[in-house]
Design a protein that fits this description.
This protein is α/β, with parallel strands linked by helices and 478 residues long. The chain contains 16 helices and 15 strands. It has helices at residues 48-52, 54-59, 65-72, 78-90, 99-104, 114-119, 194-205, 225-236, 250-253, 257-260, 262-277, 296-307, 326-338, 362-372, 434-441, 446-460, and strands at residues 5-6, 9-10, 149-153, 156-159, 212-215, 243-247, 281-286, 312-318, 341-348, 383-386, 395-396, 402-404, 409-414, 418-426, 469-470. Residues 165, 168-169, 172, 174, 178, 217-219, 249 line the site of iron/sulfur cluster (SF4).
Length: 478
């Protein structure tokens, strides 16, 4: 029972008085404090000013098994190190982990740690790919009028000025282009190149329907301040450009750059301010996946951006072992709202090769969305989307035309974007029952399973689509 009186208002007499909420309702404000990095052997002597310095963070990022071993030393077992070594050489992405991220991993249990899972590959955790996976699962290269630019939807386009990131995510959608070559993948050439940028600007200016530009990569954190301002100003100067989003995972994995790289923050803010004076909206899109990524440093960095009038939105990826349970996703969403980072999307993991251990089913996304919706303000509730290959755009996960849960085939359509086409998403095989998994092992079954799902989708379709052409290049059906 609450004791107390507030300004002539006797709480004891209020009917339907609610008891105070339990601790889980406040958990989102409970952020990691102090010099948490000092528990990592290599950072034991590192003071706060050094740890926050973005240049120090870049210089000490872990890129090889040797650097990782030197950093964590006796915190991990010999068998873990072997597993890691083997994982490094089999992964399609480079490895690059900032000290900030290294310090957030629970090294007493690295196998189950949500941050380790995202950035550090372990051979023992790799699973065979679904037979329908490709490297460029979104077929961005097919919609590129100039290199490093994807124009697929009427009024918006994706501009990729750089191919480097402050960390490399194992699950990157653009593993065809991002980072340097690894032992198993030779990347498309997307190096930072102002001449290529001019081509992209000319293309945008010659397409008046293009109003919304996503500047991604790679990661805009890696653009020097001067380049960021140059790109921002050039795009603002194009009359048809009305909205711009700079995309960076930086705030999530190296938040102290916002506090110490004044030139970069000033460049961003100057583009935001100039845009505002021209009636154009310039925002920052970031990419938090785990509530554990958010610390007192993040709060301070986000506060700095908020004070300076930068709108920040967040796009997460739904990842097995990272955020694929209800409580974790609710905590992440509330924590983002608390930081004024609007949760915009949660993506179903793209069908990219080499990271089958990270994917979840469409059903998992549906269940988590149902749980999260209503737990906080509606405008802080993300839309859960599936960006199925073929270019239908991000479809609300609930909006499938048919979902064969047994074989793990979800069928979507996008009547306003690509009429008369179907888009397919395949659940990871390990999440299916044994008999369905067996069916997928024989390629002779694939066509029948997919055609059966499409036939059901057609039956459910109220608009009765005419004979369909199958957009998804990887369905092998024409
Ligand atoms: C995701 C994406 C966009 C932006 O889509 P929104 O749904 O507006 O966030 C634009 N172009 C391409 C090619 C994309 O993949
Ligand atoms: S930061 Fe973005 S572009 Fe870079 S590796 Fe991660 S997901 Fe890919």
């Amino acid at each position: 029972m609450i004791q107390g009186r507030t300004e002539g208002y006797d709480l004891e007499t209020v009917p339907n008085l609610k008891p105070p909420a339990g601790p889980e309702a406040l958990e989102h404000m409970n952020l990691l404090q102090g010099e948490f990095w000092r528990k990592v052997p290599a950072y034991r002597e590192i003071d706060e000013a050094t740890f926050l310095d973005h240049l120090w963070q870049y210089r000490h990022s872990v890129k090889t098994p040797k650097e990782l071993t030197d950093t964590v030393q006796d915190l991990v077992s010999a068998s873990f190190l072997e597993d890691l070594q083997a994982g490094f050489y089999r992964a399609p992405m480079n490895v690059r982990v900032s000290p900030y991220v290294m310090a957030l991993i629970d090294w007493t249990n690295p196998y189950d740690d949500p941050i380790r899972t995202q950035f550090i590959p372990l051979a023992s955790r790799l699973l065979p790919d679904h037979p329908k996976l490709t490297l460029d699962s979104l077929h961005e290269q097919e919609d590129s009028p100039v290199p490093g630019m994807t124009h697929r939807y009427a009024d918006k386009a994706l501009f990729l000025p750089t191919s480097v990131c402050p960390v490399y995510c194992r699950f990157c959608t653009r593993s065809y282009a991002i980072g340097g070559d690894t032992d198993v993948v030779e990347k498309a050439e997307l190096a930072t190149d102002p001449k290529r940028w001019q081509q992209a600007f000319a293309y945008i200016a010659s397409h008046p329907e293009l109003q919304d530009i996503v500047i991604s990569g790679g990661d805009t954190y890696q653009l020097p301040a001067k380049s960021l301002k140059k790109i921002g100003d050039a795009l603002l100067d194009i009359p048809n450009v009305r909205r711009m989003r700079f995309a960076s995972k930086g705030v999530a994995i190296l938040p102290s750059k916002i506090l110490t790289d004044h030139a970069w923050v000033d460049a961003l803010c100057s583009v935001v301010q100039r845009g505002r004076s021209m009636g154009k909206d310039v925002v920052l899109h970031t990419h938090f996946n785990s509530p554990n990524e958010i610390t007192w440093i993040t709060e301070k960095a986000m506060r700095r951006l908020f004070e300076r009038g930068v709108t920040v939105r967040n796009q997460s990826v739904l990842i097995r072992g990272v955020n694929d349970d209800k409580e974790t996703m609710r905590l992440l969403v509330r924590r983002l709202g608390y930081l004024n980072a609007h949760p915009y999307y949660v993506y179903l993991h793209d069908m990219v090769k080499g990271v089958e251990d990270l994917r979840t089913t469409v059903q998992t996304a549906i269940d988590i969305e149902k749980f999260v919706r209503g737990c906080t303000a509606g405008y802080n509730t993300p839309t859960f989307v599936c960006d199925a290959p073929g270019g239908g755009g991000k479809r609300d996960v609930h909006s499938y035309d048919y979902y064969d849960r047994e074989n793990g085939i979800a069928v979507y359509s996008a009547p306003g974007v690509k009429p008369n086409q179907w888009f397919l998403y395949f659940d990871p095989l390990t999440q299916l029952e044994p008999q369905a998994r067996r069916r997928w092992t024989d390629p002779a079954n694939h066509r029948a399973m997919i055609e059966a799902a499409l036939a059901q989708a057609k039956r459910c379709d109220a608009f009765d689509l005419r004979p369909v052409s199958f957009a998804s290049a990887n369905t092998e059906i024409r």
